[in-house]
Amino acid sequence: KSNWGIYTNANDENFRNLLEDAMENSLIELLKRDEVQKRIKNSGAGYAEKIKKMDFIQLAYSNTWAKSINEAASAVVTVKTKKGYGSGCIISKQGYIITNYHVTGESGDSVKVVLSDGRTKEAELVRYNPINDLALIKIDSVNVAPLFISQSKEIELGNEVYAIGTPSFVDLSQTVTKGIISAKRNFNSNPYIQTDVSVSPGNSGGALITSDGKLVGIVNAKIIGDGVEGLSFAIPSYLIFDALKIEFAP
């Protein structure tokens, strides 16, 4: 409305940052509106009941788990779909992988997984939960030490954590970044782990781990904007079992 942009160089970095912030803030304001929130909540309500009625999927318990950052990196994959890519976490040698629902969507068409050794495998979308932004996909069995899923609800502020995923470009798979747990948050009745770990959109569905390789969260969001740094979020790992109705066989 100000016509300011007409007289500004479109290649100017400050102008682009301001424009991106304006668009982002407008979207945030839209999502806050009561009528939009009502539709979001209604879309998830039916699925919550659907999840409750599902049978548990039994996964084979592994005798060996990733016990270091290096081993954990081998258990983090790139998940490619028609609309883009994200990351995923191998949790069973049977080939079960946890990622974000917003990475896979609902159809499961043409979901492929790129392993740490560069091999690409076709994946099946087994189950998804849009409320918690989680999805379970499966490939053939793998000879990789899977990630051990922490079921602890004790989230200590200041603890060091590491994010592993595929930021920015597919060629950057298994990138490791380090930070701390900054806070525990709750958005739309869902708990989140806030960290200052550096992540990018391609990290979605990737691992948030401790130094001994335990999976404590699934990376799913970050806040970006001019002057905004160190605001990323992960879904606590203890939610995975109930959100996707999975369990390990005794």
Task: Characterise this structure.
- By secondary structure, the protein is of the alpha+beta class.
- Helices cover 22% and strands 32% of the residues.
- The chain has helices spanning 13-32, 34-53, 69-74, 101-104, 240-244, and strands at 57-59, 76-81, 84-90, 96-99, 112-114, 120-122, 124-129, 134-138, 160-165, 175-187, 190-195, 207-209, 215-222, 232-236, 246-248.
- The longest helix is centred in the N-terminal third of the chain and has 20 residues, at 13-32.
- The chain starts with 12 loop residues before the first helix and ends with a strand.
Summarize the helices and strands and which ones pair or pack.
Elements: H1 13-32, H2 34-53, E1 57-59, H3 69-74, E2 76-81, E3 84-90, E4 96-99, H4 101-104, E5 112-114, E6 120-122, E7 124-129, E8 134-138, E9 160-165, E10 175-187, E11 190-195, E12 207-209, E13 215-222, E14 232-236, H5 240-244, E15 246-248
Parallel strand pairs: 1-15
Antiparallel strand pairs: 2-3, 2-5, 3-4, 4-8, 5-6, 7-8, 9-10, 9-12, 10-11, 11-14, 12-13, 13-14
| Helix proportion range | 10-25%
Structural class category: alpha+beta
The coarse silhouette is globular
Number of helices: 5
Unreliable stretches covering 5 or more consecutive residues: none
The residue-averaged pLDDT reads: 88
SSE run: HHEHEEEHEEEEEEEEEEHE
Radius of gyration: 19 Å
Portion of residues in beta strands equals: 25-35%
Characterize the biggest β-sheet: 7 strands, antiparallel
